[in-house]
Amino acid sequence: MIRSVITGTGSALPARRVSNAELAEMVDTSDEWIVERTGIRFRHLAGPDETTATLATDAAKAALAAAGVRAQDIDLIVLATATPDQTFPATATKVQAALGIDDCTAFDVAAVCSGFLYAVQVADSMIRASAHRKALVIGAETFSRILDWEDRTTCVLFGDGAGAIVLEAQESAEAGGRGILATRLHADGRHNELLYVDGGPSTTGTVGKVRMKGREVFRHAVVNLATVMGESLAAAGLTADEVDWVVPHQANARILDATARKLGLPAEKVVMTVDHHANTSAASVPLALDAAVRDGRIVEGQIVVLEAMGGGFTWGASVVRF
Q1: What's the mean pLDDT in 132-158?
Q2: Backbone φ/ψ region at 308: left (φ over 0), alpha (ψ -120 to 50), beta
Q3: Most exposed: 106, 136, 288, 292, by fewest CB within 10 Å?
Q4: Catalytic pick among 20, 224, 252, 279
Q5: Catalytic: which of 44, 249, 276, 277?
Q6: What is the reported pTM?
Q7: Considering 104, 113, 224, 277, which one is annotated as catalytic?
Q8: How far apart are CA 274 and CA 263, in angstroms?
Q9: Which H helix or E strand runs over 61?
Q10: Cα 273–180–218 angle (5° rounding)?
Q11: What is the pLDDT of residues 267-322, one digit of tens each?
């Protein structure tokens, strides 16, 4: 069988790192208030010359280097983002050009914080269908550009960044071989008003700002994430006891803790970077994955579960033998 194997990871963060104390000089908040409710201590904010495409390109270069793959060998780029450089063309095509790739399939996926999981499923399906052999899957955001900096309930939560993986087609005769074992995705558009942006080209003709009802989102997140992780593990023929690492969407430390408890997973198996990166939407999962790979926690052969939930609502989980 053909499997999509993660052969390299990479990430990129804007140069400017902003602490809670610095943020408290901009809005009515405090380090204690933010840490207690979210676990966030720092976030990176994009400067004038940093965009979703530039961050995505840097993350892609790092992933290519880690995989030992030339950019010219990539035949598919799937980029997840809610903050594209332009309405069109796709930001993926800007990354393609920046990497010096003359021709490949390149497009964006929009599922907000779940976008990277959606992008992984799309790329995995295309690889298993033998349409492509080597793919870059990227999550990249400049969420700071759509924040209302007078709304302390949202502006303290988000940051900018990008993460990427290289997926390569590899033949495996073993059911338990390396690669993506199972992915499950969901969406429920009835909850639009709980987490959304109040603008768009076809409605207001503006970009808009992030709006969120945090308590309701928290409640849905814990239930949905625990459920979809269970679904994906069952599809892979595994149990929670066999999981080495969970790499969750870094939205809020309390959501991560509550989800782990609901699944009966020990906290030490959960990769947490929300304190350093804040919520980077579609970039969140690949950023955390790259951090855990590079510091040696995640190694080849381990079972890793990626999971996320975002506006829409959309949510999903993927089980990978790394």
Answers
A1: 97
A2: beta
A3: 292
A4: 279
A5: 249
A6: 0.97
A7: 113
A8: 20
A9: helix 52-67
A10: 40
A11: 999 999 999 999 999 999 999 999 999 999 999 999 999 999 999 999 999 999 99
Tell the residue number behind the tokens 């390569």, with chain if given: 168
Query: For residue 143, which phi and psi values (nearest 5 degrees)?
Result: -65, -25
Give the amino acid at 4.
Answer: S
> What one-letter code names the amino acid at 319?
V
Residue ranges of alpha helices (H) inside 236-283 are 253-263, 274-277
pLDDT tens by residue, 166-182: 999 999 777 678 999 99
| C-alpha atoms less than 13 angstroms from C-alpha of 228 in its C-beta half-sphere | 26
Give the pLDDT confidence of 219-242 residue by residue, as tens digits: 899 899 999 999 999 999 999 999
Q: Are 79 and 53 in contact (CB under 8 A)?
A: no
Least confident of 66-80, 217-231, 254-268: 254-268
Is 279 in the active site?
yes
* Mean predicted lDDT score pLDDT of the chain: 96
Q: Alpha-carbon distance 63 to 248, whole Å?
A: 19
Q: E strands of 104-198, at which residues?
A: 105-109, 134-142, 160-171, 179-187, 195-197
